[in-house]
Specification:
It contains 14 helices and 14 strands. With about 375 residues, the protein is an alpha/beta fold.
Length: about 375
């Protein structure tokens, strides 16, 4: 950062940005990388550069930015259900959603676990649809031995502060399509294709040099971040083994992965507590577990108003939205933290009836903390 300030080249395709793009492209195994100001911006620009219009099929079980990136540009997101095992878009449910207005599919590699790329590619090729991937969770992950970033017409990464590699805020479009990459490059800079030549409608989506410097530093530490994430994942798996009603989503350890998300499914019938009750207990103990991706894009505004009946065709999404809980990980989380956290979970499920009654009393008392 000091070097960027000393150089006084703070934005507009500076040397740190160029180095950041080159390193991302090499790690993703692609020819082209265009870094931008956020993952959401990257997705919006990729959608526009790919020429998507009309309707695009996308999961509802994802961060709302995936759907926003479409609707913001007047494209109708058509929500598809997900597989109960992978939490990713279910290819077997896509065909029934294709209409004459459908121009593309956006798959999401949720939790860093890849979509069924082959099945999605077969559908897209046969139906002549564009195929993009939201890989915000999946930097450093792979599919069948190939690095995430090489699939579809383009893939999109996020380098938000919460991600395994961070530029504080930032994102990137990666692709082997030179034409698409050049369109994204123009779109991120108001449509400029030369010093004073504007060729299309664009936005200000540039990544500045300070953020690029942060991204380069984060790339240098990426191996350590993944090592700690994998250690934490192993600790959670060991500490929660056999816990009633608790399913830890597994990563394929034979494939490169960033292990950046610790995802539980809570089966209320066996755990004795609902996911929301367990979340409430953890919050009382200063553990900020999160209900991802509650309540589902289709139940958020404006989608719940636009598509009020969407939930009827999304049974697995509805189920997961009531069961999924993400736990803390990363370099700030120690093995002792994980063991203490898992003791809370085990204690809660072992004493579910008593704790449930206490939580009900707490809610009736207006949220006063109950030990």
């Amino acid at each position: 950062m000091a070097e960027a300030l000393d150089r006084r080249w703070l934005t507009n395709d500076g040397p740190f940005l160029q180095e950041f793009e080159a390193r991302i492209a090499k790690l993703a195994g692609v020819r082209r990388c265009v870094a931008v100001s956020s993952g959401a911006t990257a997705l919006e620009l990729a959608i526009r550069a790919a020429g998507l219009t009309g309707e695009v099929i996308v999961p509802s079980f994802t961060f709302v930015a995936t759907a926003h990136a479409l609707l913001w540009q007047g494209i109708t997101p058509v929500f598809c259900d997900v597989s109960p095992d992978t939490h990713n878009i279910d290819p077997s449910r896509i065909e029934e959603l294709i209409t004459p207005r459908t121009t593309g599919i956006v798959g999401v590699h949720l939790w860093g676990r890849p979509c069924d790329v082959e099945a999605l590619r077969e559908i897209a090729n046969r139906r002549r649809l564009r195929l993009l991937f939201d890989a915000a969770h999946a930097f450093g992950c792979s599919y069948q031995g190939e690095t995430i970033g090489r699939f579809g017409d383009a893939e999109v990464f996020s380098f938000h502060a919460t991600k395994c590699v961070s530029s504080c805020e930032g994102g990137a479009v990666v692709t082997d399509d030179d034409c698409l990459a050049e369109k994204v490059r123009a779109l991120r800079n108001f449509g400029f294709v030369d010093y004073d030549l504007v060729a299309c409608l664009g936005v200000n989506g540039k990544l500045n040099e300070i953020s690029a410097a942060m991204g380069l530093s984060s790339l240098d530490a990426m191996g350590e971040f993944i090592r700690v994430n994998r250690r934490n994942y192993a600790c959670y798996r060991s500490a929660l083994r056999g816990a009633a009603g608790i399913r830890l989503l597994q990563h394929d350890e034979s494939q490169p992965c960033n292990y950046h998300y610790i995802v539980l499914e809570i089966d209320e019938d066996h755990a004795g507590l609902s996911r929301d009750e367990l979340k409430e207990i953890l919050w009382c103990e200063n553990v900020l577990a999160r209900r991802y991706f509650y309540p589902g894009c289709h139940r958020m505004k404006p989608y719940c108003d636009l598509f009020p009946l969407a939930g009827a065709r999304l049974p697995e999404t509805e189920r997961l939205c009531s069961r999924v809980l993400c736990l803390p990980t990363g370099t700030a989380v120690t093995v002792d933290d994980i063991e203490a956290l898992c003791r809370i979970i085990r204690f809660s499920t072992s004493n579910a009836a008593e704790i449930g009654a206490r939580l009900a009393g707490r809610r009736l008392a207006g949220g006063v903390r109950t030990s």
